[in-house]
Amino acid sequence: MGALGLLALAVLLATAAEAQAGVTSLYRRKMEATADMPLDADVFRVPTGYNAPQQVHITLGDQTGTAMTVSWVTPNELGNSTVTYGRSPEKMEMSAEGRHTRYDYFNYTSGFIHHCTLKNLKHGVKYYYAMGFGHTVRTFWFTAPPKPGPDAPFKFGLIGDLGQTFDSNSTLSHYEANGGDAVLFVGDLSYADTYPLHDNNRWDTWARFVERSVAYQPWLWTTGNHELDYEPKIGETVPFKPFTHRYPTPYLAAGSTEPFWYSVKIASAHIIVLASYSSYGKYTPQWAWLKEELGRVDRKTTPWLIVLMHSPWYNSNNYHYMEGETMRVQFESWLVEAKVDLVLAGHVHSYERSRRFSNIEYDIINNKATPVHNLDAPVYVNIGDGGNIEGIANNFTMPQPGYSAFREGSFGHATLEIKNRTHAYYEWHRNHDGAKAVADSSWFTNRYWMPTHDDSN
């Protein structure tokens, strides 16, 4: 080969290497402090009227959305747990009777927490619902998700580690402006545990803050470390107490034994929620459930397989580095074998999207500890950038590892718009841009129907 040929080959190889290189964004958010909104902020306001229902939120009440569980709090007295619902606000001819609970946490006593499951819903139909009868009635609405099917389009919002700061408010406002049909929430809700004595009043303010979205579309909950609320120093030794009283999940419908891991089927997506802070070792209930659940996935009906967890398996930030490693070692080979499309995690307060890589061959002694490209592997997205009081995790390892496609130390949210059985469009939006500006995006092709090389976008 002549000199010109060698030069051309070198340019070609350099260009190919550059095309595959990951991006560590040079963008830097403004460095003002991240602070919780004051208790008198308008987003925390209590609705008017005696004993008015507040903190209203909904989530799926079964696996496919023909049932929806409505939750709310009455602050002054029990009232009742009845919900009426129907296709018109003037004619809510159906009704359901729920249940209520309360809990104490150190020096805090909750209001009356109501949960009521609305059944016999029709896929894709808009419903109005009301509660608070006998005192102050409030009315909301939602649209039941479409019937599971391979080409049912749907748009998910992807949010994690939200908290209740001014940045959190920006994240939620941007998501509302961009629109979505449901939220996949990857853990760490209120950050009440960052206050002295785990001030549970901050669970109440957070739920009032997000009501403007979660009362009108289902959010699917993942537990994070800030939901543990385990504090023996003040006598609180029951993990997840506030969360389990406030936020039900459809775990029984999914054959799970605990509310922290479960699955749902929405449109063309089969979504599996895992619990990073519950036991997952071999033969534990979560291990046994996931093994069976992956065998129940029907990619011909729900081609998009998405897994949620809190602690990421692939993370090139020095914050929380390798905290998810034991779960990765336990389950990664299962997810690759199942050809999972996307894994969503939080915990690290920055943004990162991976290429399709896996590390399933490593067995301690074979020197294969470096992740390798694998078209059967999921894309990993760390979306723990919702805006919480602990601030930005802007301490990325250098050099950027080969599995990392894009990373940035900013707050924001993402959306995943499933178009059909083969294609889904993904976008990440940073808060400091306009709501419609896109800071990172990618077309994903389905691992079952079109397993092409889609991780270089």
Automatic annotation (TrEMBL):
Name of this chain's protein: Uncharacterized protein
Annotated source species: Avena sativa
